[in-house]
Amino acid sequence: MQKRWNIPNTAPQKIAELQAALKIHPAICQILVQRGIETFNQAKDFFRPQLGQLHDPWLMKDMDKAVDRIMLAFEKKEKIMVFGDYDVDGTTSVACMFQFLKKIYSTELIDFYIPHRYREGYGVSKMGIDFAKENEFTLIISLDCGIKSADLISYAKDLGIDFIVCDHHLPDELLPPAMAILNPKQKNCSYPYKELCGCGVGFKLITALSQRLGLSEKEPFEWLDLVATAIAADIVPMTGENRVLAFHGMKKVNENPNHGIKALIHLSGLKKDLHITNLVFMIAPRVNAAGRMDDARKAVQMFIAENYEEALSYAEMLHSDNTDRKEADTNITEEALAVIESNPVLMNRKTTVVFQPHWHKGVVGIVASRLIEKYYRPTVVLTRSGEVLAGSARSVPGFNLYEAIHACRENLLGYGGHFAAAGMTLLPEQFEAFSRNFEEVVSSMIDPQLLIPEIIIDAEIKFKDITPSFYNILCQMEPFGPENMRPVFIAKNVLDTGYSKIAKELHLRFSLKQDNTVITGIGFNMADKYPLLQSKKPLDIVFTIDENEWNGQKNLQLKMMDVRLSEL
Q1: What is the DSSP string of 432-466?
Q2: Based on the number of CB atoms within 10 Å of its own CB, is 357 exposed (0-12), middle (13-18) or buried (19 or more)?
Q3: Between helices 224-233 and 259-268, what is the axis angle to 10°?
């Protein structure tokens, strides 16, 4: 698949000023300026994140109301329920808040509740509120959900149950009638950082409660590894407070992790120091698998386990769920690709809409993402759920999927989501009409450029620049994530040395030289680029830099993202 290369323009003056201050390679200064870091002090805060940089939790709208209501519950010996969603952000949020409350309040007066993905659906549920009523809970703290649950929170209020909502999703005009709403994205909230995840908002409430109770200022930091896991999994910007929390959370992951995280590290076979990407690709999928394949309650039980053995028993269940999830995801992806490839009409569309009644509801969103890797276009994957079809949609970067689905609402029973991802239900007889309508709507709305994958290149460098000290500074830019991605470089006019080869029929093991510098690397699933290298013509290569360890020897290597003939 052809890719678009995009090299942003950066103000040369700002790069020169920053280089004069930092005395590091201009390519790194260029990347920093692109990321809004223009002065020595901004660079210091970026490279050396301090917990002292965190904002005062009392700046968040309604924080005083939330803390007052919890203190009243303590005084009156009320039963408190901690309620959270079934994904990583929800389960880590619940684990943090539940463990904190357990330290300062009667254990028999607190419990937690995670809704079942298929019986109750996303967010605050009627079943959860009814459970609270039956068991005499009078205060619910909802985490990573609740901001869009005005009707259900009103229902709880009528039953005599108060809500404190901790959420980070975009609020509607109508807010729920909660005792307090903690959400930096709500109107009139002067909290300086708007991009916290649900667990981050919960962490702020824990910090404020700790201060009110006169506890050690280090008390909330006990759960930073869980906060970092939520930040990694929820794909929130790796800037500001998120960067500080993730940076220090990763230290805790590597030095003294939660029993549950430690058990998942063991089952994942991870050995050396973990990076944020390990949380994204190894830890998060296992936690999410619990909700996808079964019941996410056990994810919380793993995180709050009193000892490693107990955590490991729950982690093994999650690990098993994840194995089932991977198998379902692989099989369904293969079936979906076969459906597309056998139908020329589907092959030539600007959208993908596929359906099979037996596909597992828990993995259709993942399958949609897999199909985008092959056919780069807005994608909907549907399965049967009772009498209706239900499914997930995923977009390509830059295209507003939610708007497109909203435009097809006449074919749907229900839908919800945001710019990049959505879910929907429809009647079986509406499938063909929806498929045609979605194709028409997307075709009329989408810029054709968005159907070609884009690589954003941070800077051009020479092979001779790729040194251990250069790589060491790149490593200090971690943790990587949205708005602070791993830097992508381009090197121009490089030549194959003649030692490049195809590995396992899929991958490209290459050896390239520029001037007198030779460097090796790998292009995963890029064996089709081998003829370009064999042409012996000058090439431009786009790559990231990482370290390869073999037989105790460490060497820098390139990870190829794309390659093409140099423009003369």
Answers
A1: HHHHHHHHHHHHHHS-GGGGS-EEE--EE--GGG-
A2: exposed
A3: 50
3-state helix, strand, coil in the chain (%, to 5): 45, 20, 35
pLDDT confidence bin for 58, thresholds 50/70/90? very high
Mean pLDDT computed over 243-269: 95
Q: For residues 440 and 489, state if they share a domain.
A: no
Separation CA 8–CA 373 (nearest Å): 24
Distance CA 363, CA 360 (A): 6
Q: Are 77 and 49 in contact (CB under 8 A)?
A: no
Per-residue pLDDT tens digits for 60-108:
999 999 999 999 999 999 999 999 999 999 999 999 999 999 999 999 9
303 has a pLDDT exceeding 90: yes
> Can you tell me the distance from the alpha carbon of 85 to that of 148, in angstroms, rounded to the nearest whole number?
13
| C-alpha Rg value of the chain to the nearest Å | 25
Partners of residue 79 on adjacent β-strands: 137
Contact criterion met (CB below 8 Å) for 152 and 132: no
CB 160 within 8 A of CB 188: no
- Per-residue pLDDT at 461 exceeds 80: yes
CB burial of 1-21 (b: ≥16 within 10 Å; e: otherwise) equals eeeeeeeeebeeebbebbbee
The CATH number covering residue 226 comes to 3.90.1640.30
The closest of 411, 343, 361, 354 to 379, measured between CA atoms, is 354
Give the Cβ contact number of residue 297 at 10 Å: 19
pLDDT tens per residue, range 206-242: 999 999 999 999 999 999 999 999 999 998 999 999 9
Whether residue 178 sits in one domain with residue 108: yes
Task: Confirm if 83 and 112 have CB atoms less than 8 A apart.
Answer: yes
CA distance 81 to 103: 15
* pLDDT tens-digit series, residues 93-147: 999 999 999 999 999 999 999 999 888 888 899 999 999 999 999 999 999 999 9
User: Where does residue 509 fall: left (phi above 0), alpha (psi -120 to 50 degrees), or beta otherwise?
Assistant: beta
User: Which pLDDT score, from 0 to 100, does residue 118 have?
Assistant: 83
My answer on whether 463 and 425 are in the same domain is no
Range of the domain at 447: 343-451
Count: domains in the chain:
3
**Cβ neighbours around 387 below 10 Å, total:** 8
DSSP string covering 268-327? HT--S---HHHIIIIIHHHHHHHHHHS-THHHHHHHT-SSHHHHHHHHHHHHHHHHHHHH
**pLDDT above 70: percentage of residues in the chain:** 100
